[in-house]
Protein: Aminotransferase
Amino acid sequence: MQFAKRMNQFGEGIFTKLLDIKRKRLENGELVIDLSIGTPNIPPAKHIIEALCTSAADENNYIYAINDQDSLLEAVKSWYKKRYDVELDPKTEICSLLGSQEGLAHISLTIIDEGDTVLVPDPCYPVFADGPLLAGGQLYYMPQKKENDYIIQLEDIPEEVAEKAKLILVSYPNNPTTAMAPDSFYRELIEFARKHNIIVIHDNAYSELVYDERRAGSFLAFPGAKEVGVEFNSLSKTYGLAGARIGFCVGNSEVVARLKMLKSNIDYGMYLPFQKAAIAAITGSQECVEETKKAYEKRRDILCMGFKKIGWEIDKPEATMFIWTRIPYHYEKSEDFAMDMIKKAGVIVTPGSAFGPSGEGYVRLALVQDEDALKKAIQAVHKSGILNQPMPLTT
Ligand SMILES: Cc1ncc(COP(=O)(O)O)c(C=O)c1O
Structure:
């Protein structure tokens, strides 16, 4: 059998190794607390499940959906107006996605040709790089460094790179760094995109998971944004609907039209009961969003305070469902630290290097376990001794 060379750029890497160790530990009845993958464990609100179940009980709802229902498009329009103060035309500026991951994986196929330059953050959520790579793009990494509060420095992108680039992907509140961007960043981004004729994709998956009385908005709320790009949004984390795969691409009508056209050749639309669940989520009571945010905020505080007490001063995130922090100083490689965390403490974390070269030296912990499990994780790490600086060898 012969297979496509394009697959050679995707490795299983560290995740497979971690999963193998996890499986073995579970087989041996040993402790495993998985803080690696960002799968939310907070269920959707009752009214969302009810809308889904009622629709799933209707035998007429098992046809191909093909298109987004008008009621869904209207719901997204009013959600964007109410939540972000952004006007959207339901006919031309909204496209549903089978999870925003699906859209992020496919959209590059509509924008870039083989060899085209794509600007991606480093570190970044992996599909930001994988989508363009599948389309044959050349990546140019834009570092997100602690000394710049993890904000991309657009002025550091060389003029010749900016001139060649066709697409830029950005996302704040950011996975994995957890950073939020100031308004000035979005204004500069729009200016930069206009100047160099670059399409912008802003991923807004974490706009609702923002703590300490702060609030995030939408990229599309900034003047000129819709002329240069689109925003991706997801119901996975905000409404606990990760398994239902519900996301949206909204904004520039030309970009949306091309994505819709591509998708009409790939999938037959979102399962009708999921469309109903989405409508219930974004038009119903938003109390559940507030509760979800509070739950993650509490988990964040438990983990940050707990680790501080046992000698690991970790950075407190201002947003997202993650903690992004330096590995203890006596480790050089984030992969070595992640390996020790699972082998010696049974706690699975993601090494920062899995998110790009600038992620080396960092680790990501996902707040995807309940409070008791997080307390157990802190105890297990403490007991394992891996945070302790090894004693210098004496001769
Ligand atoms: C930044 C970011 N974008 C998109 C996604 C994917 O979300 P969805 O479940 O909508 O595919 C994730 C999931 O972790 C994410 O962290």
